[in-house]
Design a protein that fits this description.
By secondary structure, the chain is an alpha+beta fold. It has 5 helices and 8 strands. A hairpin with a 2-residue loop joins β1 and β2.
């Protein structure tokens, strides 16, 4: 079983990954999501859709609802040099395929420092432990997988996922309301649960 907190040392810096549980932690991650999304997605999908998606999918209320009703697990990365400051986050939901990686985001100033790779290693460990301990995985499948959706124009993230071992499985367009659509790839990474 994974510990709710993992400490990672890298390049004279120490990062911690912690499962989020308190109201304050969840409110902090919602504020972090707003900061990251505004910076990263406004040029990609426009200010109106970015603001809408932050409000509908990244608010503290939605995060709490996802945890309570949808079996999501939220985690944040922290830089020990900045106590209490979240620098990235991810959300995971076990399902019949394995684990859905709902979110994985890092602040701009922390990108290209290996943090997303460390997060992905944590995610894979979580997925392996979860598939063993929970009975959600469809045993008729050959292998469990990590799977996620990524905007087709989010080229840096797509390349990162490919380098990590993900492959594009399909293309989907999802109506998210208010006249907005998500035009995404579904990407998967199959793994052995043992």
């Amino acid at each position: 079983m994974l510990k709710p907190q993992s400490i990672i040392k890298m390049r004279c810096m120490t990062f911690k990954i912690k499962k989020l549980e308190t109201t304050r932690e969840l409110e902090d991650v919602a504020a972090l999501a707003s900061e990251i999304w505004t910076e990263h997605y406004t040029p990609l999908i426009g200010a109106a859709q970015t603001a809408y998606m932050i409000d509908v999918f990244q608010s503290a209320e939605r995060i709490k609802k996802d945890i309570a009703d949808q079996n999501y697990n939220y985690f944040a990365a922290y830089d020990d040099a900045l106590p209490g400051r979240q620098i990235g986050y991810f959300a995971l939901r076990p399902d019949e395929k394995g684990v859905f990686v709902s979110k994985i985001y890092v602040l701009k100033e922390y990108r290209q420092k290996g943090i997303a790779t460390l997060m992905m290693n944590f995610i894979l460990d979580f997925a392996k432990a979860t598939v063993k301990s929970e009975k959600l995985f469809d045993t008729n499948r050959k292998q469990p997988c990590l799977w996620l959706t990524v905007n087709k124009g989010n080229l840096g993230s797509i390349e990162f996922y490919k380098k990590t071992g993900f492959t594009i499985e399909e293309e989907i367009v999802t109506d998210i309301g208010n006249g907005f659509f998500m035009d995404d790839y579904v990407m998967t990474l199959y793994f052995d649960a043992d």
